[in-house]
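Hi U.,

Before I forget, here's the chain from the pilot set. I'm dumping it here mostly so it's searchable later in email.
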Amino acid sequence: RRNREVAMQQLEANFANELNTLPGMRGSLWAAFNAVSEFADHERVFRGRSDLARRENRLDSIWFGSSNQLKQRAYSAALTLAGVN
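Structure:
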């Protein structure tokens, strides 16, 4: 439960980040997707016995695993909300 709360706080912070509040982008579905993408690719914690193992696990997740799936779900949800999907 605590991890979920921390993740939601980070997603909200990403959504409000100055790079996500440029004119025409603020509050948009694209800004929401960017917030999820930033979290999935750069802020999730990955385990491994060494720094190299953690980096490999992160890359694998971004390309093929749970980070990729999270971004795909966020993208599909944004398209659905936009009425495109």
